[in-house]
Automatic annotation (TrEMBL):
NCBIfam families in alphabetical order: hutI
Transmembrane segments: none
Location(s) in or outside the cell: Cytoplasm
Protein name, entry field: Imidazolonepropionase
GO molecular function: imidazolonepropionase activity
Chain sites annotated for binding N-formimidoyl-L-glutamate: 136, 302, 304
Pathway membership, UniProt: Amino-acid degradation; L-histidine degradation into L-glutamate; N-formimidoyl-L-glutamate from L-histidine: step 3/3
UniProt keyword annotations, A-Z: Cytoplasm, Histidine metabolism, Hydrolase, Iron, Metal-binding, Zinc
Top-level EC class: hydrolase
Binding site for 4-imidazolone-5-propanoate: 78, 136, 163, 229, 305
Reaction(s) catalysed (UniProt annotation): 4-imidazolone-5-propanoate + H2O = N-formimidoyl-L-glutamate
PANTHER family membership: IMIDAZOLONEPROPIONASE, IMIDAZOLONEPROPIONASE-RELATED
């Protein structure tokens, strides 16, 4: 049974052949949802007859947000760490251990419910596709169960056994890399599509990151990487060399790093929630865009460095602090995220695409940045199902 959504003030399709500008915006628009897919997009005046009709009454519509980076399999929280940081202490990779301990101690039911609650929280704010990483287990058993829990909530599952060196291996990081690329990989690969590594001082160096990603690639997992978050380093160059789908964070980039990203298919995924919540300098989206790199945005939802699931918040920060135009930020939060996940069925609203549609209580997508902190998402369809 098809549903027409009509009288949309401005519909962002992300398909320039369907409307104005790079976002392919159609004014006084309508779309038809048939089953899980978009069946038709055009002007309200031309909409075909359907059984159901939803009148958008002058609201804007955008594709569901595509969040390509989250850490939702965890227990506990790190309120105290955040509170201390906001009172003057700096952020290091060390706090991750707190969440590892809480996650290991939690039951499968608690971890499953916690992940589900955050996926739902993101969905109600317009995120209709979400990637979920492991990385708070750091034993073969705890990483494998983290991934099986992630897989219950999404198809976009990432093995991040190399988040930090597990505490038991603090004196022998090489042995931990052997575990992550050996028995742990064997146990985890069946659940995952992607492999990730935190390439940073205090986590894994360039050689270790290369060993992790190439071992994953041999098992059919596609690389993505936490790169250049806290300092300059080899992560971005490694990502490009290995053909990673995405290099995430990209806060400290040399001109060579920017050029490498611009000359590649590796998406630069910017995670401004992390800089917000660690009071650090934001990545320079303008520099990446001007060089010709593809940019995605994600909240990086995790209990330590960025405890937000709000893509709208990231759009507002990207526009205010990172040199993005409202159009660029919207594209990066939708089509950019889809690129980072190598998906072409989401992140756009054109015939054949998955019917992931967000209606905003605003006449234009620009309001996402113009009205920061205001809950503008008023209706959400995911794969054709009205979920909000
Ligand atoms: O993306 N950078 C590494 N991992 C997370 C932080 C995780 C944590 O602090 O628990 C991030 O920022
Ligand atoms: Fe992250």
């Amino acid at each position: 049974m098809a549903t027409a959504v009509t009288h949309i003030a401005a519909l962002v399709t992300n398909d320039p052949s369907l409307g104005d500008g790079p976002l392919g915006i159609v004014h006084d628009a309508a779309l038809v949802i048939d089953g899980e897919r978009i069946a038709w997009v055009g002007r309200t005046a031309d909409v075909p007859a359907t059984d159901n009709r939803v009148v958008a009454e002058g609201r804007a519509a955008v594709p569901g947000f595509v969040d390509s980076h989250s850490h939702l399999v965890f227990a506990g929280d790190r309120t105290e760490e955040f509170n201390a940081r906001m009172s003057g202490r700096s952020y290091t990779a060390g706090g991750i251990r707190t969440t590892v301990a809480a996650t290991r101690a939690a039951s499968n039911n608690v971890l499953h419910a916690n992940a589900g609650r955050h996926v739902r929280e993101a969905l109600l704010q317009g995120t209709t596709t979400i990637e979920i990483k492991s990385g708070y287990g750091l034993t073969t058993e705890d990483e494998a169960r983290s991934l099986s829990i992630a897989a219950a909530h999404t198809d976009e599952v990432t093995y991040l056994g190399a988040h930090i060196v597990a505490p038991e291996f603090a004196d022998d990081p090489a042995a931990y890399v052997e575990l992550v690329t050996g028995p742990m990989l064997d146990a985890c690969a069946p659940y995952a599509r992607w492999i990730d590594v935190f390439c940073e001082t205090g986590a894994f160096d360039g050689d270790q990151a290369r060993a992790v990603l190439t071992a994953g690639a041999r098992r059919g997992l596609v690389p993505r990487i936490h790169a250049n978050q806290l300092s300059y380093g080899p992560g971005v160059q490694l990502a490009v060399e290995l053909g990673a789908a995405s290099a995430d964070h990209c806060t400290h980039l040399t001109d060579d790093d920017v050029a490498a990203l611009a000359g590649s298919d590796t998406v630069a995924t910017l995670l401004p929630g992390a800089e917000f919540s660690t009071r650090a300098r934001y990545p320079d989206a303008r520099r990446l865009l001007d060089a010709g790199a593809t940019v995605a945005l994600s909240p990086d939802c995790n209990p330590g460095s960025s405890y937000t699931s709000s893509m709208a918040f990231c759009i507002a920060v990207a526009v205010r602090e990172m040199g993005m135009t409202p159009d660029e930020a919207l594209w990066s939060a939708t089509a950019g995220g889809a690129r980072a996940l190598r998906r072409d069925d989401v992140g756009r609203l054109a015939p054949g695409a998955r019917a992931d549609v967000v209606l905003l209580d605003a006449p234009s997508h620009v309001h996402l940045a113009y009205r920061p902190g205001v809950p503008l998402v008023s209706a959400v369809w995911r794969a054709g199902e009205l979920v909000r």
